[in-house]
Amino acid sequence: MSKIRFFALGGLGENGKNMYVIEVDQQLFILDAGIKYPSAELYGVDEIIPDYRVLVRAKDRIRGIFLSHAHEDHISALPHLLKDLNVPVYATNFTMQIVNDMLKDEGYQLDTLTLNTISQNSIIKFGNVRVTFFNTTHSIPESVGIAIHTLDGVIVYTSDFTFDQSSDVKYQTDFRKINELSEKNVLLLLTESLGSTLELSGGVSNSLNHRLNSIYTNAEGRIIVSLFSSDLRKIQRIIDISLAHKKKIAIIGRRAQRIVDIAIQNGYLNIPEDSLINLRYIDEKNKNDANDIVALVTGNRHEPFFVLQRMCKKSDRLIHITEKDTVILMTAPVPGTEKMAARTLDILYRSDTQVKVIDKRLLAAAHATAEELKMMMNLLKPKFIVPTIGEYRHQYGMKRLAIEIGYSPDHVFLMDNGDVLTMDDKEAYVAKNDINVGEILIDGTAVGDVNDFVMKDRELLAEDGALLLVAHVSPKTKQIIGEVKIVTKGFVYVQESEELLGRIKDAFMEVSKKHLEGKYINWNDYKRDVRNEVNRFVYQETKRSPITIPVIISTEG
Question: 230 lies in a domain?
Fold first, then answer.
């Protein structure tokens, strides 16, 4: 049997930064490369990507990065990855268009990369390994599952999917292909697990249409709808209902505008040209308040909430929400945005507008529910299962479902990033923490310049502030010249703390005495001792640990 290994650099035990690696006889196949958004305590960090540096050494063995669909938590680490790993990328047409747009934004010359567009009928051969694809249903078009065929069986990665029956060909699951795979001996199933704790959501689609139609019928003024820009199915649904009610549509949100433009150009969103309007900035003459406007407020994670808050506070340049408007919230909070969502609701209710929150149950998650996951397992009949894409509770829920339908617990592996599953000679075992994994925090532009120390400093700055101590010292006369200045930010209010600051200066003088007695001044030791002594004294007096920065300047005099 060939040696097959599976490990994840991100996506296990967390929500986001999905990146999985399959190794078959030394050849590496990378499935997805996504980002994760930071939680509030990561000050100033914009996004988090998997630490892919372990792959750089094995670069020559990587056969390609295979993308399942165009959501950020599956593709947005690419611009960072391709700087160090210029390997072929495979994706469907729509996903590739979004990838191209993203890479151009980052200043890539696309002709220096190998970007291959595939369809669900593509078969790509690498020696004795073949890679094939099958269409799945998700909230964005042209999502595919990926199958890696080895001599010992098939490894199937479903990525995000549902079995929601759609009339639109661009979103339909190809059951025939899934059945074909099941006849080929599926060795390992990597399935999403985010929805493993959700019950079946049948008939939701019609209830949602009914609810939206009744809101539209009763709305007197403009209708403002919050949507996630990556959820093109819901955007299409709102467009269809708006057209049925003879409304004009305005799309707000820069990034969304681009996904939507790409979707319109490629025929994934159908909006008649004459129904789309561009809003001009509000001024004396133009208020953008015609009754037939439907404004789609779109964005990622917290962006729709943020824009709605601006509209309520009358600081938005396109729309000021009034009591005549109807606001429909179709963005159920995602992990990390719950506070923002709650605050936005509060602000909306204060503005006396008609607020309609669409029940989470009607927004049928774009993730497979418990019954759908069981169905996928029963269709493919894999030998081993690894729940991916989800926090530990979701993975655990997935294991429970597998056991419910007859799998023995030792055939379902709950793994963490960095664990390695090895399959050889018909047995499978997991080595814990076999691969060194971490996260790269991206702060603005440069990659990898924000590490744990920087984050620790930002945390301290946020909690206890900073204290700067400036002194001029003459190396000749071994004297402190002029006055010692103390500057504080976010530590104490200077006017009220003169006595404390005076005693900090005294502590500084004490340390200085020792360092100015010798023949030479060792500036590094001098600064270090000042920092330690001041920190000790400040903590003793105030129980706080500001970041202390001694600035000791060598001055002739």
Answer: yes
Residues 230 and 356 in one domain: yes
Per-residue pLDDT for 219 more than 70?
A: yes
**Does residue 205 have a pLDDT over 80?**
no
Q: In this structure, what DSSP letter does residue 457 have?
A: H
E strand intervals along 411-522: 420-424, 427-431, 439-442, 466-474, 479-489
**Best CA proximity match to 355, nearest among 318, 311, 300, 291:** 311
Inside any domain, residue 450: no
The whole-number pLDDT of residue 63 equals: 97
Confirm whether 422 is domain-assigned. Answer: yes
Q: What is the pLDDT of residues 48-65, one digit of tens each?
A: 899 999 999 999 999 999
Same domain membership, residue 396 and residue 353? no
Q: What is the CATH number of the domain that holds 512?
A: 3.10.20.580
pLDDT tens-digit readout, 78-122? 999 999 999 999 999 999 999 999 999 889 999 999 999 999 999
Instruction: Give the range of the structural domain holding residue 307, as residue numbers without chain letter.
Output: 205-360
Per the CB < 8 A criterion, the answer to whether 251 and 257 are in contact is: yes
Domain termination site, one of 321, 345, 360: 360
Position 256, amino acid: A
Report yes or no on 231 lying in a domain.
yes
Is there a single domain that holds both residue 160 and residue 95? yes
Check if the beta carbon of residue 521 is closer than 8 Å to that of residue 478. yes
Task: Name the pairing type of β-strands 420-424 and 115-118.
Answer: unpaired
What CATH number has the domain bearing residue 60?
3.60.15.10
140 three-state secondary structure: coil
User: What angle is formed at CA 259 by the lines to CA 276 and CA 319, rounded to 5 degrees?
Assistant: 50
Cα 69 from chain centroid? 14
Considering the entire predicted model, what is its pTM? 0.82
Long-range Cβ contact pairs of 106-109 (< 8 A, separation 24 or more):
106/79, 108/79, 108/82
- Does residue 457 carry a pLDDT above 80? no
AA identity, residue 282? I
